[in-house]
Amino acid sequence: MLLAPGLVHLTFETMLGECRTRHSSIWRKGDGAAGWRMYYHQATRVPSGMGKGPITPSASVSSPSGRSRVS
To answer: Which residue intervals make up region (Disordered) (predicted)?
Structure first.
């Protein structure tokens, strides 16, 4: 999700064996060769029995034109 020009919020889920986690991170676009850098990240373990649906990435970024793209 585009928060501001050069600032995005990404969310995704992972599964390693039976351990499922949800992740959230904020990325800033740097100047020059720095490119995109992670500014904040949090991962939360999902208790077993919760959220049994398929893992779907939601790391979509809205472009200024309003269209979404997956990074």
So the answer is: 47-71
68 lies in some domain: no
pTM of the complete model: 0.61
pLDDT tens digits in sequence order for the chain, 71 residues long: 999 999 999 999 999 998 999 999 999 998 878 899 999 999 999 988 776 555 555 444 443 444 434 44
Contact 8, 1 (CB under 8 A): yes
> What is the per-residue burial (b if ≥16 Cβ within 10 Å, else e) of 42-69?
eeeeeeeeeeeeeeeeebbeeeeeeeee
